[in-house]
Fold:
Amino acid sequence: MSILVEDGSGVAGANSYVSVDDCKAYCDARGLTFSASPTAEGEQALIRATQAIDAMYCARYPGYRTNGRDQSLQWPRAEATDAEGEEIADDEIPQEIIDATCEAAVRELATPGSMMPDLERGGRVQRLKAGSVEVEYASNSEAVTTFQTIDGLLVGLLGSPVASFVGRAVRG
Structure:
């Protein structure tokens, strides 16, 4: 499967938010390695990265898909605003999504499947010891991987990942 980049029009069959050349430029500017040779490896990494970003964050995306189910990816979106309330055009792929996809692609190129790994840890593991190294997970630990860089890039678009509730309790 070759890459088909979303251009903001809701391209049917689109499978990436970023082209290989644009991802390389992003990485070059930040001193990251994205040297996909052949290019097919870079395209595959970008396709997996796009899929991972949409899967992990789509529940928090503002608005709704501009072309509904007719568009392949979650962006572009209609009636979307960023975390500060600024409108996002119906034909825009936010820079936060593009940057997060590039960061995810770097990880996917280095280790395919790293963005959406199958995890077998969590509440069931109480202690794991190998030599002098020991890991113990609390009974309520979640089986998830946190991607700090990607979360940080998307916070301006999605807001804080932790919902806060402020209110007043009244007895009655």
